[in-house]
Structures
1.
Amino acid sequence: MFHVTEDDGELYAVRRFDEIADLDAFDHHLLWCEECQRQMVWTEQYLRMLRTALLEMKSTVGQATSPTPAPGPQLPTALLPRK
């Protein structure tokens, strides 16, 4: 087996093992490949961040908030007219 694919890494991170074509080869490769281990850590952190963001969004649904207008373009101070 070559390196873990991003799709299989995500499936593994969310515990959907039955959707990984060759789980035994995947597990074996992950045991010794430091590059794939780093990728799995990154994938798990990314998914954790997504879950947190979705929970925060879900908790604010229905709360009345007024959107904050985006600031207009800013000129560098050196380009502003001097007083």
Note: The CA atoms of residues 50 and 56 lie 10 Å apart.
2.
Amino acid sequence: MKTCAATHDTGRSPVPLPQGKFIGQMRTSTLCRRVPRPVQLAQFEDNVKQDMELQRLQALITGGVSVSDNAVREAYRQQGTR
């Protein structure tokens, strides 16, 4: 089972998702009530929406970023060790 990613970062109640896929509203609602720290279905859905938005933003920001090993070494040499 997979857990909603943001639940670990934000301390929200983790709800297991089989293979990370939608399993239906009734089953999701049941799982939300059975975890150690129960969460309302609406809150869980909001958490998933926020997770997806953060993942998209992170992918947008980091997607085009590429730094060569040599560039990292050179920047390290220029900055020196502290």
Note: The chain has one domain: 2-79.
